[in-house]
Design brief:
By secondary structure, the chain is mainly beta. It contains seven helices and 35 strands. The chain folds into three domains: 243 residues, 3-Layer(aba) Sandwich (Collagenase (Catalytic Domain)); 309 residues, no CATH class; 118 residues, Jelly Rolls, CATH 2.60.120. Helix 2 crosses helix 4.
């Protein structure tokens, strides 16, 4: 919910982040286009009724009917058309959610609930031109963990014309400023439905909370609402990443050197994928690359890798552009001279962006001349996976060598990040400084640095027999989550005020966490071929020296989601938590207040894992209850060991209290009750 400030005397417009007044401000997101965006499972609708819609759910006062949206109905409306304003609002929201597995659909005038085949996971924000006495917008609930697959929210667009009129007047009364206000509120309310509460928490090094999307309404001046594109804070980004997932799984940049005397006109990588298609997105095209985005050919047959069949592709950089090498003056467009350094990078997206187990495998890199002939000497490139979070809590990333040359990993480090870094920042500048920033050009301050081995051998390998080196980046049970919020209980007012506890209207004690070890992990270091034959431009001769590729990698954290809960009216509860996917099982004693936390007891549970939780306790109330968070429950089984009676049921809402007595099981005081839940980690 977004509440209006109690006072309307607001600061003058900051004017520091205004968008250019163009006809169309397209989303600054490299994922929001074509088939890649359509792969995202979570659909976010921006619904603009053309007539009052009484079928919209009446979950809060004045949200139904969803009122008509027409620019002419907005108090103090800007010049322009309804369609133009809707388009700009879409651009704002699509940019806010671009890194997540959320497809922000183009503006619609049809109620999404009325579609013949509405998406299974949908978040519907109805935007009207009406004004509310105290709100900019209101969501159905703070859906912790994004447990509910169908959510609704309302935005009162006319409230901006009343309460932000001083910042939407004269030259400031533009479509872009209205869109930043209404779009920011739409993103905010959708965020509640994806599990975010109000928050003004600021991570060390982060910008002020007034630039963020999720602070409570009274703390957000109109100057910030309509004067800039706000963004999710580090904390909120992490919670969203764990709840809905990231599009990013892996991203790589490389500082290469041409080891040949001959000039190269192309770079070709052999890449393996289990997918039938391979799409390079988010390609580096900055000043240190000789080429525009690469082309992909294939699949060209199949190759066996680690016992599995992979399709073979060739990714080729060859479309010339102007550039400047960091080690030689006078660089030529699309050409790399002998011993000249250059930089390329890309993210590969497969046909199923949710399939994180079948990785893209980089076999080799080859330089070619202008006629397409391969040059004799190759720059070296490692393959890598997206990391594994093991049952013991350890998170490990593996780098591999698939070529017949002995290599060395040297001077590697890892940074755990609160949000992914943009591909253009995955490099060091000419002074050797690393400046990470995100898709909206916001500087990123890491959660922490992980020291890695200064040197690791990576022996000669092949596709059939890959050589491998591993980096341990942390342990879930030792390091924990960077973001871990335990909610306090029912949110009667459906809101939170500045400085108050964040509350969750669904589950007392429910947890919100970020992925492990963070939303993303950045790794960099040198891949060295010791004593390699290569061209020396100064000596104008071949020499045997270390051939160095500087590697910049980024991988998404794992969606480790705690399963927890609480017993009410039950004493001395013994709890068994079992991950049916991994076979790991742990036992624990419920706390004195009845609460239990399977992750803190030693169980790794990832999004999509099938988990079984069982509680055995002594009944000391007429209505013994169990409440579980983090699990989409498929079946509950209640057993009275004394009578041998059993009842089973599926709860309508997984976060509801599980009541065996209501389900038909007779239990008496001081008798033992066993309750078992089986479900999927959401």
């Amino acid at each position: 919910m977004t509440r209006l400030p109690p006072a309307l005397k607001l600061a003058a417009c900051l004017g520091t982040a205004l968008l250019a007044h163009t006809a169309q401000a397209a989303p600054t997101c490299y994922h929001n286009y074509g088939a890649i965006d359509a792969m995202k499972p979570n659909k976010l609708f921006l619904y603009y009724p053309t007539a009052n819609d009484a079928t919209f759910p009446a979950y809060y006062a004045n949200v139904s009917p969803a009122r008509t949206f027409d620019i002419a109905l907005l108090p103090g409306a800007p010049a322009g058309t309804t369609a133009q304003l809707r388009s700009r609002i879409y651009d704002v929201v699509a940019t806010d959610y671009c890194e997540f597995n959320v497809q922000v659909l183009p503006p619609t005038t049809t109620n999404p609930d009325s579609l013949a085949l509405p998406p299974a996971r949908r978040n519907m924000v109805a935007i009207g031109a009406d004004t509310n006495a105290s709100l900019y917008g209101v969501a159905e609930a703070v859906d912790t963990g994004d447990a509910d697959v169908i959510d609704h929210a309302r935005v009162f667009g006319g409230s901006y014309g009343v309460f932000c009129s001083a910042d939407l007047s004269g030259a400031n009364n533009t479509l872009d400023r209205w869109a930043m206000g209404i779009g920011g509120t739409a993103a905010h309310e959708a965020g509640h439905n994806y599990g975010l509460s109000h928050s003004a928490v600021v991570h060390s090094g982060e910008d002020a909370y007034t630039h963020h999307i999720m602070p409570a309404g009274p703390s957000m001046p109109c100057a910030n609402r309509v004067g800039e594109r706000r963004h999710f804070s580090d904390q909120d980004f992490g919670i969203l990443a764990n709840n809905v997932g990231l599009t990013l799984q892996s991203l790589a940049n490389w500082d290469f050197v041409n080891p040949n005397a001959a000039t190269a006109a192309r770079l070709r990588m052999e890449v393996l994928s289990r997918s039938a298609t391979l799409t390079p997105v988010s390609t580096y095209t900055g000043s240190r690359s000789p080429w525009n985005p690469p082309a992909v050919s294939g699949p060209s047959g199949t190759v066996m890798f680690k016992g599995l069949s992979y399709n073979r592709f060739f990714v080729t950089w060859q479309s010339a552009k102007t550039w400047a090498s960091p080690n030689q003056p006078g660089s030529l467009a699309g050409l790399v001279r002998g011993a000249e350094q250059f930089h390329v990078g890309t993210q590969f997206v497969q046909e199923d962006i949710l399939n994180t187990s079948d990785q893209v495998v980089i076999v080799d890199a080859t330089l070619l001349d202008a006629d397409g002939n391969a040059l004799a000497l190759h720059p070296r490139v490692p393959t890598f996976d997206t990391g594994t979070l093991a049952a013991d809590g350890s998170f490990t990333v593996n780098l591999g060598n698939l070529v017949a040359a002995n290599l060395v990993l040297r001077n590697w480090q890892a940074l755990v990040l609160p949000r992914p870094a943009h591909i253009d920042s995955l490099m060091r500048d000419r002074e050797g400084v690393l400046k990470l920033f995100d898709v909206q050009q916001e500087a990123i301050t890491p959660w922490r640095e992980v020291k890695l081995a200064e040197k690791a051998e990576l022996p000669a390998g092949s596709v059939e027999k890959p050589a491998q080196a591993s980096f341990l980046l942390g342990n879930l049970f030792k390091d924990g989550h960077n973001v871990r919020i335990k909610f306090s209980g029912a949110n009667v007012a459906r809101d939170a005020v500045v400085g108050a506890k964040e509350v969750n209207p669904d589950v007392k004690g429910a947890l919100a966490t970020d992925p492990f070890p963070g939303a993303s992990v950045f790794l960099e270091g040198e891949l060295v071929e010791p004593g390699a034959l290569q061209w020396n431009a100064e000596k104008k001769a071949y020499v045997n020296e270390d051939l160095v590729t500087r590697v910049f990698l980024q991988i998404a954290g794992k969606r480790a989601k705690p399963v927890d809960g609480a017993l009410t009216g039950l004493l001395r509860g013994q709890v068994v938590c079992a991950n049916l996917a991994t076979g790991k099982k742990i036992s624990l004693q419920a706390a004195d207040d009845g609460s239990f936390d399977c992750e803190r007891a030693g169980l790794v549970s990832l999004h999509g894992d099938r988990v079984e939780i069982s509680q055995v306790a002594l009944v000391n109330a007429k209505q013994p209850l169990v409440q579980v968070g983090g699990l989409d429950i498929a079946k509950v089984t209640c057993t009275n060991p004394a009578s041998g009676k059993t009842v089973s049921f599926k709860p309508e809402v997984s976060t509801d209290a599980l009541d065996c007595v209501k389900a038909g099981l007779e239990v008496g005081l001081q008798t033992t009750l066993q309750i078992t839940q089986v479900g999927t980690v959401h």
